[in-house]
Structure formats: C-alpha cells, structure tokens
C-alpha cells in the first residue's frame, strides 16, 4: 500500500490545481486546502506549479500532492515522521476500506433527510447525545473536521450549512466515493459544495492544519483504529478555544479487553489497528480537554436476546436512562459516545 501511495503521488504530479502565485522562490497557492502546516516541521504549506505540496520556508521535500479534480491532498506518509510498522498497519486498513468503497451504492433517495439533525437521530446513542449536548447540531457557518468513518458523514455537515469541511481518512477510494456521493446528492438538492470540502489522505495522528482553526470535530467508528492520545492531542490542537469534539465508538471494559486479547491469541486473529476504547482512554480526555463527558451503552444487549419483547424494551430503556458511571455499564458496555471541549 505504501508503494501504491508513492505511485499515486507520482501520478498526481501531472495534475494542476489553482494557478499559484510565486513568492520568495516558492509557489504559494491561494487555495484554502493549503492553509495548514507541515505535520512534521510545522512550517507553512504551499503548492508548487506541479501540484506538489511543500514546506514554504525550507527544502525538506514534498509533503504530498494536490489532486485538484478530487479536491484532495494525497500525503506521502513516509514524510510524516511515522515508523514503518505504523505505516504498514495503517496501509493495511486503507486497503480494507478501499475494497469496501468499491462495493458501495452511490445514490441517496431524493426524500432522504441529510441534515445534521437526521445524523444525530440515527441511533438511540446519538439521540441521547443530542439531548445531553444542546449545540451538537449547530454547524451552520462553522468549520468542521470529519475524522474517518468511511467519509459518510461529511455530507450531513455540508447540507446543513457548514462553511467548510475537512475530511481526514487513510483510504483514498473511500474519499473518492464520498466526493461522488456529495456531488450527486447536494447538486440534486440545489446545494453548492465546491470549495467547501477538502479531503486529506493522511493518518489522523498527523493533522496538516494550523492551530485553533476548527469549530467542531466529529468522528464515528474511527478513533478505535487510532493511537488515541496522539489523535486526541492533535484534535485538541486544531480546535478553536471553546471548540468541541464528538465521537461515537466501540468500547470494552477491562474484563472485555482481557477476554478479547486472549481470544485473538488463541485464534491467531490479528485485527490490525482495531482495538475498542478502554475506560482509562476515555478518562484521558479530561487531561487533554478543559471538559469532557461520555456515555457507555449497549452493555446488556447480549442478555436482551433471551428476553420477551416487552422486557427487552424495558431493559434497553434502562440502559439509555442509566448514568454512564453505573458499574455494570462500565464493565459490560460495548459502545460509547463522548464529547470534549477545548
């Protein structure tokens, strides 16, 4: 995968983005996709005439290439200060999701609600989060960071009036699919999207953005594939003061974590970067952000399958209503949502 990425970067050099303006011997683009920083050197990024993304104040070499027709920056992962082991694990994940993207349907039914309110009504957990956090759906005129999640959610933010969405993902084919989907869905609904969305093919542990530029960061089913503390710190860095992070994730208590590891050893099952969050990792949010809360859910669902329908409904209502620190939930929960504010 790393080799294929390198080939892609080489092929992308033939692409041309917006015509840049020369400054100090380095071509600086007016395109807002490049308003960020080199994830390794923290230097400003610019766009050279051959669409290479470069650090403008040094000769450290290209960080990646801008693919103008895809509104996407393909970054050279070897240039990001990451280990070969890490790059190999992430590249494996990218291959899985690229294959997934090839099998997906493109269209949305004309009557489908694409508002952020609809996004936060998809599951009982998301509805609960919306009830607890009043401003989750307020994205109009805001800049949004969408981390992973196979790129399905950027569409909701754009439809609801976000000023700009930057989508970070390691699978380029997922991003191409997302672009095709939003182009079809938003155009059919009379909504403009050009210049409001940019895709960044890069691990979330190395965000290529300035400090304090995002109002809201969202992630669904992706953080459990990341190095949590690195990703949390990077998201915290790029959020504005008062900006909010929200994520919905897989979770396992300590007993579940141990059982999962034993199972994988016995079955020789290597799940790559797939590791549900732990209670300690949720608590680490308090050491990074100014405030945080989380809700563990679905801890008793396994028992619900053996119960009558009415009892099952009561049990699930109990799960939704119970305090997240309730001990059985902490030990037995299998999913969580969390929100944190800078």
Q: How would you describe this protein?
A:
The protein has 342 residues and is an alpha/beta fold. The protein folds into 2 domains: 2-81, no CATH class; 107-341, 3-Layer(aba) Sandwich (Rossmann fold). The chain contains 13 helices and 13 strands. The strands form 2 sheets. It has an 11-stranded mixed β-sheet with strand order 3-4-5-6-9-8-7-10-11-13-12. It has a two-stranded antiparallel sheet with strand order 1-2. Helix 2 (84-102) crosses helix 6 (172-188). The two termini are 35 Å apart. 39% of the residues are buried. Mean pLDDT is 81; it is low at 1-29.
Q: What order do the SSEs take from the amino end to the carboxyl end, as H and E? A: HEEEEEEHHHEHEHEEHEHHHEHHHE
How many helices in DSSP terms? 13
Q: What is the overall pLDDT average? A: 81
Strand order within the widest sheet? 3-4-5-6-9-8-7-10-11-13-12
* Total number of strands: 13
Poorly predicted runs: 1-29
Strand content: 15-25%
Q: What is the CATH first-level class name of the largest domain?
A: Alpha Beta
Largest sheet at a glance? 11 strands, mixed
Structural class of the helices, strands and pairings? alpha/beta
Shape, principal axes of CA atoms: globular
End-to-end distance: 35 Å
How many structural units, i.e. domains? 2
In which range does the helix fraction lie? Answer: 25-40%
CATH architecture of the largest domain: 3-Layer(aba) Sandwich
- CATH topology of the largest domain: the name is Rossmann fold
Name of the CATH superfamily of the largest domain: Vaccinia Virus protein VP39
